[in-house]
């Protein structure tokens, strides 16, 4: 297990103050407190995620992030004010936010100056007055700097990427903290208002709906609003030159598609034109689309960085750096299915990520069959035959193997086996009722196995023992 602290540059910040803060906490056991993951004590520097112990924080639950950002593409400097509205889940003498790099200026809690300290990726905030359990409180953090990209244990990059004319933010699993202070764990979802000030002529695209666009003194301010709960890893901002296409699906859902002109190849454009059809097809399988708008962002990342698509909420990001086409239909189907599996029904902790990737991979298989390509049985047989599928059980990744075949392909094989055991009708019910039952919430592997068990009179224990938990490859598919 690699701690976050070794993955980002440590910043020494007021060590004396930190020592004081840590010794004055009073702590609190957190027992019986509805912290996002049980067991995180008041003010704890993490929620207790088995893979990312420093991710998220104990003692409060964020309901809204108001991010006021200003970006200078020439220098790469980001200036921001985060207004974080939260509810204390226990009495709090101090609490943490997660923030990697950047310089913190004035911090207030409920309008009064608070003292702060930095320790690794923890920003320790000590309000002037103790917060009481159940209280709603508002923290503002002024910050600035050139955001640092994180290099993950699998060698991939995440966080705030600089591009030739702007920037793109990708935050899975923990990169959100490179551009805003947050309770950076998927178990604490919140609404967002993100305003981005950029030099005139540039665009700023984010999640949700464009609520306003104003200009003054050579700058344009874009205001994006997300009203449905969103995990920090799904927040994005893309700044630069973009070709914007606004449209609607036949069902009336507003779409906003932003394509970097460098990545605007005909095959990507053809794939993107399938968005309404894909969303309608997925809605038929998974139930009503969970959000008020949809779309996509195709961004031109520096070569060697990014290289993966991400299911950022309402508006997945596709990398335009890997040669045309930037977007292929299968990847589009994958990222759009995440809107149900991952974005709306979000993992409770990172080992549950197979519930995202298993469903998204299975959706690719369904699409290929639907298109007259490979059958689901063929895709399952190929996944079964691939030795990489069997490296570990789907719910047992490490930070270095979060995006490996056991999470994706073996996760999809669990669903394939469930269809065989439940039958087509009960399995179709599972695809609709699982995301509906957990809309805007969090889901764990145990929630899933219990949910499946309620759909049948059959005993699913052997199926899960073999396909979900087994350490060896089953004899046959
Ligand atoms: N979650 C993304 C998807 O499957 C993939 C992804 C995110 C990824 N971060 C990554 C893949 C890092 C490889 C490395 O849609
Ligand atoms: Zn995925």
Structure write-up:
- The structure is a single chain.
- By secondary structure, this protein is an alpha+beta fold.
- It is built from ten helices and 22 strands.
- Residues 154, 156, 172, 308-311, 334-335, 357, 403 line the site of tryptophan (TRP).
Query: Major β-sheet, in short?
Result: 8 strands, mixed
State the domain count: 3
The helix-and-strand class reads alpha+beta
Strand content: 25-35%
CATH class of the largest domain: Mainly Beta
Tally of helical segments: 10
Strand order of the largest sheet: 5-4-8-2-1-12-15-14
CATH superfamily of the largest domain: tricorn interacting facor f3 domain
Bound compounds: tryptophan, zinc ion
Annotated CATH architecture of the largest domain: Sandwich
Count of individual beta strands: 22
Percent helix: 10-25%
Q: End-to-end distance, in Å?
A: 32 Å
Spans of at least 5 consecutive residues with low confidence:
1-36
- What characteristic shape results from the CA principal axes? globular
The CATH topology of the largest domain turns out to be Immunoglobulin-like
Radius of gyration in whole Å, from Cα? 22 Å
List keywords for this structure.
binds zinc ion; 477 residues; 24% helix; 3 domains; Neutral Protease, domain 2; alpha+beta; binds tryptophan; Immunoglobulin-like; 5-stranded antiparallel beta sheet; disordered N terminus; globular; 10 helices; 8-stranded mixed beta sheet; 22 strands
Write the layout of secondary structure elements.
Elements: H1 15-23, E1 60-72, E2 77-88, E3 95-98, E4 103-109, E5 112-113, E6 115-119, E7 122-126, E8 136-145, E9 150-151, E10 157-162, E11 167-170, E12 190-199, E13 203-206, E14 209-216, E15 219-230, E16 237-240, E17 243-248, E18 254-259, H2 266-272, H3 275-286, E19 294-299, E20 317-319, H4 329-337, E21 346-347, H5 354-370, H6 376-385, H7 405-422, H8 424-437, E22 442-443, H9 445-453, H10 461-468
Parallel strand pairs: 1-12, 18-19, 19-20, 21-22
Antiparallel strand pairs: 1-2, 2-8, 3-7, 4-5, 4-8, 6-7, 9-10, 10-11, 11-16, 12-15, 13-16, 14-15, 17-18
Helix pairs in contact: 3-4, 4-5, 5-7, 6-7, 7-8, 7-10
């Amino acid at each position: 297990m690699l701690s976050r602290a070794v993955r980002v540059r440590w910043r020494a910040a007021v060590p004396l103050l930190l020592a004081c803060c840590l010794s004055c906490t009073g702590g609190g056991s957190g027992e019986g407190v509805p912290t996002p993951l049980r067991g995180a004590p008041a003010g704890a520097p993490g929620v207790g995620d088995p893979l990312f112990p420093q991710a998220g924080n104990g003692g409060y639950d964020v309901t809204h992030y108001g991010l006021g950002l200003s970006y200078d593409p020439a220098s790469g400097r980001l200036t921001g004010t985060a207004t974080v509205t939260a509810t204390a889940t226990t009495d709090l003498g101090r609490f943490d936010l997660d923030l990697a790099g950047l310089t913190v200026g004035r911090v207030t809690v409920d309008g009064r100056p608070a003292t702060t300290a930095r320790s690794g990726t923890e920003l320790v905030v000590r309000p002037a007055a103790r917060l009481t359990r159940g209280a709603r409180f508002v923290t503002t953090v002024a910050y600035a700097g050139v955001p640092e990209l994180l290099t993950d244990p699998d060698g991939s990059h995440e966080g705030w990427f600089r591009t030739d004319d702007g920037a793109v933010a990708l935050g899975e699993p923990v990169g959100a903290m490179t551009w805003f202070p947050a309770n950076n764990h998927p178990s604490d979802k919140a609404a967002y208002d993100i305003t981005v000030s950029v030099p005139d002529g540039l665009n700023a695209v984010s999640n949700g709906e464009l609520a306003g666009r104003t200009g003054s003194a050579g700058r344009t301010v874009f205001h994006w609003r997300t009203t449905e709960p969103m995990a920090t890893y799904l927040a994005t901002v893309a700044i630069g030159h973009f070709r914007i296409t606004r449209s609607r699906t036949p069902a009336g859902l507003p779409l906003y598609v932003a394509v970097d002109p460098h990545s605007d190849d005909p095959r990507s454009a053809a794939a993107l034109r399938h968005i309404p059809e894909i969303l309608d097809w997925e809605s038929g399988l998974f139930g009503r689309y969970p959000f008020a708008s949809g779309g996509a962002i195709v961004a031109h990342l520096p070569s060697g960085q990014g290289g993966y698509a991400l299911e950022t909420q309402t508006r997945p990001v596709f990398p335009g750096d890997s040669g045309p086409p930037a977007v292929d239909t299968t990847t589009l189907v994958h990222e759009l299915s995440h809107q149900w599996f991952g974005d709306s029904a979000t993992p409770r902790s990172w080992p549950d990520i197979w519930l995202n990737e298993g469903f998204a991979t299975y959706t690719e298989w369904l699409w290929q069959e639907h298109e007259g390509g490979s059958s689901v049985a063929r895709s399952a047989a190929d996944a079964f035959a691939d030795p990489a599928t069997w490296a570990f059980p789907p719910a047992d990744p490490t930070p270095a193997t979060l995006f490996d075949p056991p999470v994706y392909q073996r996760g999809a094989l669990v669903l394939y086996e469930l269809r065989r055991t439940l039958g087509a009708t009960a399995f179709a019910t599972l695809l609709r009722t699982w995301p509906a039952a957990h809309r805007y919430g969090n889901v764990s592997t145990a929630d899933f196995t219990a949910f499946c068990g309620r759909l049948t009179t059959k005993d699913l224990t052997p199926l899960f023992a073999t396909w979900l938990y087994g350490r060896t490859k089953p004899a046959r598919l």
